[in-house]
Design goal:
14 strands, 27% helix, binds guanosine-5'-monophosphate, single chain
Length: 255
């Protein structure tokens, strides 16, 4: 395989130059980090599974008219995506109290929220991604009011759709984080699209009957059976690679 130019390496993914202008290759690693990089580990097969899970969810979203950066899966660990200008704001949507919300307000984890709650975080590893308000976002020019309106309405559509989709496979969508990018068309018009990935790395997913955690919290909280949880989500969505666990090692990124 020809060497490709690496453009960016993040905690869980690598971005390479794509085959056409305006495209990128998104490579999924098995590396896992938590608590702003203080905890590091490997979840064997995670990259292979997240590549498939994210492909599946992004494809279903585009079928209902939610624009995303996803184009197609290339192989076990890579997908072709549109090059977008990433907006440095993470949007978290919450349906059930968990994680930092449960902690901050002293709400018992598992409490169903009176309505879906949206939060904004400024995307910065150095600062530990602080929570911000619309005032910060527009005053510092991270996104315009119109961008933010588009992001919130897309996030709510994604939430409604994914809630139903996961419910259908016996999984409660507790909360999730989305990232967005600006896509410029040939007339220089801007479209806001869902970027990054949607997977058990950035969603909290609980079994509907047992409330068992089936996401990255198993790694964050040392609950064990992390690989199995990711596999079970892929299996329920019908995207587990046929050859099973042997197929999950997949090729590693070229350095
Ligand atoms: P919390 O604020 O409770 O830690 O996270 C809320 C939701 O957003 C969880 O589903 C969590 O996985 C996701 N999330 C928040 N920040 C990040 C992040 O920096 N990386 C990833 N992968 N997910 C995040």
């Amino acid at each position: 395989m020809a060497r490709r130019r690496k453009l960016y390496e993040g905690k869980a993914k690598v971005l390479y130059e794509g085959p056409e202008p305006g495209t990128l290759i998104q490579y999924f690693k098995d590396d896992a980090t938590a608590f702003n990089n203080q905890k590091k580990g490997i979840i064997t097969g995670k990259g292979v599974l997240n590549n498939r899970i994210s492909e599946f969810l992004m494809t279903r979203l585009s079928e209902i008219g939610v624009p995303t950066h996803f184009m197609r899966r290339l192989n076990m660990r890579e997908q072709l995506v549109r090059e977008v200008e990433i907006i440095p704001i993470e949007i978290v949507v919450r349906n059930v109290a968990a994680g930092s919300l449960a902690e901050r307000f002293g709400i018992e984890e598992g409490t169903v929220l009176p309505r879906s709650i949206i939060e904004y975080y400024y995307k910065s590893d150095e600062l530990g991604s602080p929570m911000v308000t619309e005032e910060h976002i527009t005053a510092f020019g991270w996104a315009a009011t119109q961008d933010l309106d588009d992001m919130v309405s897309l996030a709510l559509r994604v939430n409604d759709f994914l809630n139903g989709l996961f419910l259908g496979v016996g999984v409660r969508l507790v909360d999730f984080k989305l990232e967005f990018g600006r896509l410029y068309n040939e007339h220089d018009e801007i479209q806001i699209v869902v970027a990054d990935e949607i997977s058990p790395d950035n969603c909290r997913l609980w079994d509907i009957r047992t409330n068992e955690k089936m996401d990255k919290d198993r790694f964050r909280k040392d609950l064990g059976a992390v690989e199995e949880a990711y596999q079970e989500i892929a299996r329920r969505l019908g995207v587990l690679p046929e050859a099973g666990p042997m197929d999950l090692k997949g090729p590693q990124a070229m350095q």
